[in-house]
Amino acid sequence: MKTCRKCGIDKLLTEFYRMVGMRDGHRNECKRCDLDAKAERHRKNPEPARERTRQWARDHPERVAARHADYRASGRKAIADRKSYLKRTYGITPEHYDDLLAEQGGGCGICGRLPRDDIALHVDHDHATGAIRGLLCFRCNNALGDFEDDYERLTAAVRYLRPPSMDGALDGLVRARVADLVASAGAASN
Q1: pTM confidence score
Q2: Can you name the CATH fold of 92-189?
C-alpha cells in the first residue's frame, strides 16, 4: 500500500506508475491524480499536445495514410460524415431521417421515386424558418428550388401544363399533390 501525495488516499502499488529511482519503484502520485493533472494542463494549453500529434503525423506519413485508408475502407467514415452533415445542416439524426423516409413510404415526398443506392433523398426545408418539410429526390428538390418555393408560381406552372381537354379544371392527382404540398408547408411553418 502507498499513500498518494496529491489525493492522500491509500492505494495498492498497481495504482501508481512505475518509476526507476524511487525507493519503492513507483511514483508518489497515483495514476488517477496524474491523469487528472495531465488533463488540466491540456485544458489550459492544448497546443503542445496538438503540435506533438502534428509532428508525429509528419514523421510517419505512411502510417497516417494506412490508418486513413483503413477508416475509409471500413465504411465508418461515410457513416460519420452523414451523421455529422445531417446534424450540422438540419439538426436531425440519421434515425430521424429514416423515420421521415418511412413516413413517406420510402420514396420522394412529391413523385414517390425511391432513393438510389448511392444517393439519398434530399432533406427539403423552408429556407425562411429552417423547418423540415420532408425528403425529396434530386429533380423534385431542384424544381422547388427553381420555383423559389413560390406557391403561385407552382400553381401557374400546373395551369400551364394542363391539357386543353381539362376545360380549366385541375387533374385530381395534381390537385391532391398541390394540397399535400400546401398542407405540409403550413404544418412546417407552425
Answers
A1: 0.55
A2: His-Me finger endonuclease fold (3.40.1800)
